Automatic annotation (TrEMBL):
Residues 602-679 form the BRCT domain. Its cofactor is Mg(2+); Mn(2+). Its EC number is 6.5.1.2. This is DNA ligase. The gene is ligA. Keywords: DNA damage, DNA repair, DNA replication, Ligase, Magnesium, Manganese, Metal-binding, NAD, Zinc.
């Protein structure tokens, strides 16, 4: 059974900016907006969208293509919050294939896409999760799945694996509420690193699916499809709405208590899901049939399948981004093509000064949505393919609402801007890209830079696009100027007294709350210095030393290439005046421990600075968990045994090749029990000193 989310619109006579309207919002079918959604909307503070615009987007999701970047991010944030709270404003399909995909096409490096999507806040203790819970990379077409396979094969060749022999495990992608069960407590996924304790769900009667034991790690809280249809569909908008109610602190409704008592709602660990195994050569051809087969095997909602490699060593070698594991992908096919006429190519200036082209096209129905824009990727493509007014292009939606241009059927004189659409500065070419050089005077770059700073800090509210735009209009155009504002100045700019007070309090909070030094550095937006590289750099050099680093010193750090080092040194020089001003404000920075310090503490921590390789099946936890634990203790983790390896840690079912390699290279071999005893001393000593 498919559950369609009820949509709504505002009547022509209703006010567009007030929440407390006496008449219900109705859609064309007379469906009323749910009371829970109304209540939630009353709590919203809009930075950029109006209430009327929000409901237009809900009723007509295809109009999301008309949002500017700031509105799009705000809509995604609101829609995600409602979705995770069990009150989705739009369908999963429209969220994935329209809203999220639009941002991915416009700004593929936007932080919203590369961090775990935020959950609504639940009452309970927030703690660090026993293991990271990342999102999953998504593929919507056979080509995207094929590209992922090519990356898998390339990595396999690099460690001496035969790609033809690789096996892939395919499981259902459950459409539930993600959580982690460590056997003692149950946690929400949170931001992937820290979650909220919701053990009360088990105390209320939640059980593990198929009578499995507790403590099986990550999984989803789901309700039986058949039970929902027979007993809950009249009271709950959709299964997700019901699933969220299981973990909330408020007293349970009778229907929830009954479902828990009937064991119709369960925690389903990912490790116990039904699965199928395929090799590379027949994977793509069989995914559609596998999806149907797995869907038929479960009485729980699915929204695709998850594919991952089974080779643990290859998993280790490929690793993960801050958003997803590289060795795993979720697949949902969605492909339709159309030929459309281009109306114009619109330039948009990003934070970095890159000017990106978006082709506005004649409105066209594609995969059930009205398409009015298509990404042209970069102006080199516009130039070389002949994209401009009256060009005819072939599009595929492929899960992205600003669809990809897969072919140019009729080329014309390309439409390429000579000046920046934001500040009118003459543009210059760098390879296939157009750039605005006016870094310090371009309104778009300045606004996006300030937005990036506060968004990356992650510990300050209220400084969204609308606030920053108003500050810019009032000549507040640098981050240090923002921090110098007082409430009376903000009131003079048109902010209300309470809002002005809140903004000043938020600025103070962002300075006083503890924040990692690598996150603070990443907020300055130096090219190539995202959170991962900042953390890596500060593991070798203290924050106050970075401006004196040479290119050679940066290249000496694993993961930094010569070209990156050159860009980083120039970037640090550019931000130094602002950095010095902000650091003088007294931000409460948590210092990243230096690798050298961890190595020097060898008496306390015998694996600090050591290179470890894990092999075999572990009982203490998954190998990924043990690797993460080792890294926290200052160790480095490798994928294969080399002459530089210090310890080979072995579980069950160990292959002879690694044991032989370790023996021949003089690498010390530890059983899992010996390893745990080794780090147990470290952990105990650390606790005694804390």
């Amino acid at each position: 059974m498919t559950y369609v989310r009820r949509t709504s619109t505002i009547s022509a006579n209703s006010p567009s900016t007030k929440f407390h309207h006496p008449n219900p919002f109705l859609d064309d079918h007379g469906h009323m907006l749910t009371q829970a959604q109304k209540d939630a909307l009353k709590q919203l503070t809009f930075e950029h969208l109006s209430l009327q615009r929000l409901f237009t987007l809900q009723q007509q999701p295809q109009t999301i293509t008309q949002l500017d970047d700031a509105e799009l991010v705000e809509f995604l944030t609101i829609a995600n919050s409602f979705y995770r709270d069990g009150q989705p404003l739009i369908s999963d399909h429209d969220y994935d294939h329209i809203a999220l995909a639009e941002l991915k096409t416009r700004q593929p490096s936007h932080p919203f896409l590369h961090t775990v999507e935020p959950e609504p806040k639940f009452t309970g203790k927030t703690v660090e999760l026993p293991a990271r819970m990342l999102s999953t990379e998504k593929a919507y077409t056979d080509k995207e799945l094929s590209d992922w396979l090519k990356r898998i094969h390339k990595a396999a060749n690099e460690i001496g694996r035969d790609p033809a022999g690789l096996q892939f495990r395919i499981t259902p992608k459950l459409d539930g509420f993600a959580a982690f069960d460590d056997g003692d407590r149950l946690y929400t996924r949170g931001d992937g690193r820290r979650g909220t304790d919701i053990t009360r769900a088990f105390e209320r009667g939640l059980v593990v699916a198929n009578n499995q034991p507790r403590g099986l790690g990550a999984g989803e809280i789901v309700v039986q499809r058949s039970y929902f249809a027979a007993n809950l569909a009249q009271d709950y908008e959709n299964p997700r709405n019901f699933q969220a109610s299981v973990v909330k602190e408020k007293a349970l409704e009778p229907a929830v208590e009954q479902a828990l008592g009937n064991q119709a709602v369960v925690f389903y660990p990912f490790s116990t899901l039904p699965y199928r195994v395929r090799r590379s050569d027949d994977l793509i051809d069989s995914v559609a049939a596998l999806s149907r087969e797995l869907r038929a095997s479960l009485d729980y909602d699915m929204d695709g399948i998850v594919i991952e490699i089974t080779d643990d060593e290859l998993k280790t070698y490929m690793g993960a981004t801050r958003h997803h594991h590289r060795w795993q992908i979720a697949y949902k096919q969605n492909q339709e093509k159309a030929e459309v006429k281009v109306l114009q190519v619109v330039p948009q200036t990003s934070r970095s000064g890159r000017v990106n082209p978006v082709a506005e096209v004649e409105p066209t129905r594609l995969s059930g949505a009205l398409i009015q824009r298509a990404t042209a990727h970069h102006y080199g493509m516009v130039r070389d393919k002949g994209i401009g007014p009256d060009a005819v292009i072939e599009l595929t939606r492929s899960g992205e609402v600003i669809p990809k241009i897969i072919d140019v059927v009729k080329a014309v004189e390309p439409q390429i801007p000579a000046s920046c659409p934001s500040c009118d500065t003459e543009l210059f070419w760098d390879s296939d890209y157009l750039y605005c050089p006016n870094n310090t005077g371009c309104p778009a770059q300045i606004s996006h830079t300030i937005e990036h700073f506060f968004r990356t800090l992650g510990n300050i509210d209220g400084f969204g696009p609308a606030t920053i735009e108003k500050l810019y209009t009032n000549n507040i155009r640098t981050i240090d100027a923002v921090y110098g504002l007082q409430a009376d100045q903000l009131e003079g700019m048109g902010f209300g007294p309470k809002q002005s007070e809140n903004l000043v309090n938020e600025l103070q909070r962002s300075r006083h709350e503890v924040i990692e030094d690598w996150r603070f550095l990443a907020a300055f937006g130096v090219f190539r210095m995202g959170g991962g590289n900042c953390e890596r750099l500060l593991g070798h050099h203290r924050l106050e030393e970075i401006f004196e680093l040479s290119e050679e010193q940066i290249v000496a750090i694993e993961g930094f290439a010569e070209r990156t080092a050159e860009v980083v040194v120039k970037g640090f020089a550019r931000i130094r005046p602002l950095f010095d001003k902000l650091q003088a404000l007294g931000f409460n920075l948590q210092r990243t421990p230096l690798v050298s310090e961890l190595q020097a503490s060898g008496a306390l921590n015998p694996i600090a600075g050591k290179l470890l390789v894990f092999t075999g099946t572990m009982t203490h936890g998954s190998r990924d968990d043990m690797k993460a634990e080792a890294k926290k203790l200052g160790a480095k983790v490798g994928a294969s045994v080399t002459g530089k390896t210090d310890y080979l840690v072995t579980g069950d079912k160990v292959g002879a090749s690694k044991l032989n390699a370790a023996t021949s290279k003089g690498v010390e071999i530890l059983t899992e029990e010996q390893y745990l005893k080794l780090i147990g001393t470290t952990i105990s000593s650390a606790k005694e000193q804390s």
